[in-house]
Amino acid sequence: MKAVVIGLWLACLVSFLLPAGTFWATNGPRLFVALVLVHALECALFLPRLRRAGGSLAQHLVQTLLFGIVHVRTLPAR
Predict the structure, then answer these.
(1) Tell me: the pLDDT tens digits for 9-53?
(2) Cα–Cα distance between 74 and 66 in angstroms, integer?
(3) In the list 3, 24, 50, 55, which could disulfide-bond 15, CB 3.0-4.6 Å?
(4) 66: Cβ–Cβ under 8 A, 6 or more apart, which residues?
(5) How many other β-carbons are positioned within 10 Å of the β-carbon of residue 68?
(6) CB contact at 8 A, 70 and 7
(7) Cα–Cα dist 38/46, whole Å
């Protein structure tokens, strides 16, 4: 599942380099911004759980920014 999310991130980044007028050149940057906003919101919402998970909080935040709920689901519930 993480490979799918990375592929989506890469497609969004490549969309910034595409010529104007194509579907991805128009919608890719919008999707990129949406991904950043949603994953930042997930970081804020799941911050207590990320802190309780142990290990490096910075690593958990980066993983959540990249993978969102896919990473959070791998953490222990308590």
Answers:
(1) 999 999 999 999 999 999 999 999 999 999 999 999 999 999 999
(2) 14
(3) 24
(4) 5, 6, 9, 39
(5) 19
(6) no
(7) 12
